[in-house]
Write a structure and sequence with these properties.
four-stranded mixed beta sheet, homotetramer, 399 residues, alpha+beta, three-stranded antiparallel beta sheet
Chain lengths: 399, 399, 399, 399
């Protein structure tokens, strides 16, 4: 589906409906959370759910309403600083590690802020020529969806620190079927094209589309399961420095890692903390919450390797693989850098992706927490190699 | 007033009323705070108001209800760990710096916990012989009152980090009158007695009463005012290492101190953040929120010194001084150590004071945030020398 | 020159002479250093010169003498641990950040250790079939040369912290000629091969040789000079967050960077600390001692970019560029990762390069401190993006 | 012996001889140390032996030669900053934690600096009226002696980090005799005087002499032995939080303490690193290298307590106790504060003691490493409560 084209042609009403749908989906995520749950920030990398709720509105207010809607009145002048994440081009920012201390505005005020912005956005869609806001609106909605997944990541992390093991939601899914044995698909070497072709929405970091030369490789049809990974643990993976990158091993030792994030072992039984509370490890489920270091060490132990992002994209485009975008983001062997010819967007939104192109690795696919329709085969997610609180797993490749 | 004696003789009803009064006074402090305000922990030394609310109940539950009230059912078994502050004698404790992440139990559940404990305590007062609980009940009520002052300290600190400068309460007091010039009272040297005489309630660290030899000294009739202290700032006090203890100067440099906590200067105008929000500096008010290091440096700059705690207690007992217990706790020159012959109470409550007798200094008096009737002339408050978020000020002495 | 082939065919005497030459070159670097100069470790990333002197011998002892020379007696059993750098495959290691505290063995004993190892190595070359040691000897000599450059880096860093600004050596070179204006060479896009072709010695990370697709680009004929970079400083480069990667700007702020490492400005005159002591900035000299973050920000400010390592290698192979390997290592835009099909060497020497393939960037070329004949056009040097104590500079590329 | 009086009356020759004796004693301590041994600084609290050698000379140069000896030429102007320890009153100081990186001046140059200063000092004694320098000379010699003990402390600490366990010196003493059972001497309560009486040399912090009231107490006739302390270890002392001050227990956990500094246990055999290298624990020897926290916890476990410094001085003055000043400094229960009426010396030497009167505890007596004649019964040594590298032990008291 070509979202931008659709926006281009649709009547204002259709656009407004899509706007409302995306924004309402965010509210749906916090409906069962108390004001206290939405307040806390469990680590500097995370943000309070309340902050996410406000920041999405800040984005529309800053990049669309203030510049484009005549007579727009900001909900509160102070929010311009409080809810700016990292855009130095639009002014000051409140200290990131202290977001969890902002008890004012209250959650109710943030909800009112959202309503204020939503109403104004609908006026803008109605009254201002689409050419002025089409691209920014699409960016804003995709940005909103990214924060939907971040809310789930951050809420899970905060709840996980509570000894009461509170569940964010009821168990949703049916039991997972037994995982099939891993099979491999051979992909021939050659000159391929990857990256977004500029038709329909994509983030700036997905382009330009460009050629890459690939050697022949094989791509695993399914993700690494929790059962697969348990074998690595039981084989002493976390006690074997020779399996790890040097910085990875230093992290294992400094952090005392013995299993993926959220896993615990009591009386020989492994469990993991999830959005549904603490649950037993199901060996058939796709592995979640490993770092790049763990993914890399596991692949080495298994005698294989991680795919590069180009290998991932080419294989996924060829098709026929399971769990591409619905279980776990998949760490690739590729550090996150600019594609040849990459130019960040003009203005402050150019800070969206470009300035983070160092010290991170690309993940591809999508996860159980990714909003429907948000991700693409060219989508480049990224996290530092030690990060584990994303819904991140492993797909293997081999020569 | 001899509180313990009173408890000894009073009918259960009178005792129950005093219990209710103290406990209700705690609730009065959080009545204007949202669940979010009660959730946050702004630094490791502080605790969330919700935690204070729960911990006071934990104290009664742990030291009175569980051992003494037949058939008492704890409100929630998990709270035994969650709300233990530092008593190793009664088991595990939840990590102190992470108290602010406990979004569950909710504030409403903590209020229900308080009601549960209060009801049980009234049953205990009614049904169990007073000899079994009299001393512990008195300790529990004094403990509750200490946390009342801590709630105000911690809430003020948390709100101070919000750029919106939110006020905890309306301005209460009338304008302060012009401070009188400082006068001195000469106290003759000699052998004095200090410490609590064991009639009526006191914390264990206030005794035993014992003799001390004092050289003659003079004691200032009033506290150092904000105007007095502004002169120190303007004279370059925060840029003059020769005025400071070595560790104090290291703190000034590491923390970038240029004024007391909560002070700010914009366009030449000094303001301070208070429970009433940001207010102008009134030069006649008693100084608040200085560390021992600042108190010591100020006294040196002024050509005087801080009193020892023995000097403070002897002078205060002789009487005739202003602002003894209603404005600001007064740093003394005395490190917090055991009195001769000191024995901590038996059992886990013996951890109440004794294990903190190192790396802290004694403050005497009481502050605007101290509950009525809580403090005594023998009362020994204590904080590390760099702490500033208490309601702490300066009284001078000289030879 | 094809070194391995040469070794293969040469008589033992020729090989022995090359061994002696490389080892003696190391001694030449410390001839003017006192035992004290060789003792100190100025930061965890650096090592004492004495440690470098010993570690080179440890390499030959561990990987050649002990396994291959019958009846070899280690100089001191304890050295196996003391002078192991990071090879987990051969046992324990002494704590890296504490290398500077090992006052025993003395420098004289370390020199004796070198003589002991050198004598044994010459026996080995004479008595053991070359097929058993040829590759390891070549690796050992290249390893020794890498530590020669590290000695210069680490000694310069240690001396730089001394307020006396002591010079390591007399000024060697003639004045630098005026730098020519920068010119660009256009390189056509297409499918190229890069990497080492396995004829002659190379480190494992230089191969396998493989194809890469490049878009057309232009390559600067000379390095960025100190004069070029002064313009960036004077234009406020270190005060402009929009020029920097996010992690780079965080480093600028945390470290207080205002210029390259070793630069200082007094009364408007810029100087830099060098191996020749403190010298004025010569605007015509090639820039040294910048981090990847600074190189990246400079390139952005200049409207250009850094070359990828493939672009660098292709251009350098095509030839015609100045300052390829004799002035400064050149930061590339390429994170340090494995080439397609890369396999680390078997055994503990497989730890030489592979486990560092994360959180570093590739530098290409060579520097004024690189031993003659050590570097190659396929050579991959690497450092973390914030490192500045290498002899690292900038060459620009553009689309 | 009244040292100052002696200086007052002695001929210049006698004074010169005493000066030479003290200065030469310092040299005697480093005679078996290499330039490398004298270079290193094993932790921020320690200093290199070379620095101590230079700093003693700096003291005489700064406080005597420069102000008092006409035409005195400093050995090197830069040393005024390099070798200033902490006197802000005389200008800048080189960063304390980086003292170990000053490879220049060399040890030989520092010895030359000493000779230069010594020669000038002898000219001063000869040519300048004693009234101008008598007190400062005495202070300088006592200062030199303090650094003699610090050299031994710091050298032992640096050598202890070397896995080779190098000995500083040969074993000197005969085997220790079996420790006698501990006996107690009862000291009656009453009004006592403590502190220096101003006749003869003393540091400013030892006065003024003043009255203190003591309750009756008993004083142990001998120090706690290593055998005594082993019982504490074996009884689980390092695993019992209830025995420790809160900050002490936090230190035990953070530092992983399981025994005194320098102790190790292999195959059930305890050894300790000493100036004579690693030696078996002799249960009859006086315990060394414990912190205040350990001394306090041991005393609590033993059912006794540490004496206050007043109790120590009164008992020691009454006499009859063993191991007063020749085995180990004895931690007291007294935080290091000013005596009543204390005034620091005028000028920069007033920084000698006064500014450290916080966050430290007083030790009394003297140790095996204290120079002959240096200590007194009024002498107040002091260290932070977690410090263990001094020659510090335990004497018990009880009510």
């Amino acid at each position: 589906m070509n979202v931008t084209a659709q926006l281009r042609d649709d009547a204002a009403e259709v656009i407004a409906q899509r706007f409302r749908d995306v924004r309402d989906a965010t509210l749906g995520l916090t409906v069962n959370l108390s004001a206290e749950d939405c307040q806390v920030q469990s680590m500097p990398d995370a943000s309070p759910a309340k902050w996410h709720l406000a920041h999405g509105s800040w984005f529309f207010e800053t990049f669309l309403l203030t510049p484009l809607l005549p007579d727009y009145e900001p909900f509160d002048q102070a929010f311009a600083i409080l809810f700016n994440s990292y855009y130095v081009g639009v002014g000051e920012r409140f200290s990131r590690p202290h977001r969890g201390l902002l008890t004012r505005p209250s959650l109710d005020e943030v909800y009112a802020y959202r309503r204020h912005v939503d109403a104004a956005m609908l006026r803008l869609v109605d009254a201002v020529p689409p050419s002025k806001w089409r691209d920014l609106l699409e960016l804003g909605l995709n940005h909103e969806q990214q924060h939907q997944e971040l809310i789930l990541m951050d809420v899970q992390h905060a709840l996980s620190l509570n000894p009461l093991d509170p569940a964010y939601r009821q168990k949703l899914a049916d039991p997972v079927l037994a995982a099939a044995p891993r099979t491999w698909t051979e992909i021939p070497g050659g000159l391929y094209e990857i990256g977004h072709n500029a038709s329909g929405f994509a983030f700036d970091n997905e382009g330009p589309r460009h050629r890459v030369w690939l050697e022949p490789y094989a791509f695993a049809d399914r993700l690494v399961t929790m059962g697969d990974y348990l074998q690595f643990i039981e084989a002493g993976g976390y006690r074997s420095p020779e399996l790890w990158l040097s910085d990875g091993w230093a992290t294992v030792e400094a952090e005392g890692w013995i299993a993926p994030l959220y896993w615990a072992c009591e009386d020989g039984q492994w469990t993991r903390f999830s959005l549904e509370g603490r649950v037993p490890i199901d060996p058939n489920e796709a592995l979640l919450h490993v770092s790049f270091y763990e993914a890399d060490a596991y692949a080495r132990w298994a005698g294989h390797r991680l795919p590069t992002e180009a290998e991932w994209e080419v294989a996924a485009t060829l098709g026929g693989f399971q769990q591409i975008a619905d279980c776990a983001w998949q760490w690739t062997a590729s550090p996150y850098t600019a594609y040849p010819g990459f130019q960040p967007a003009t203005g402050a939104v150019g800070e969206y992706n470009a300035k983070f192109m160092v010290n991170q690795f690309v993940l591809r696919g999508g996860s159980l927490a990714t909003p429907q329709g948000h991700t693409r085969l060219t989508y480049r997610n990224f996290f530092p190699p030690a990060a584990r609180w994303a819904f991140s797993g492993i797909r293997l490749a081999r020569a």
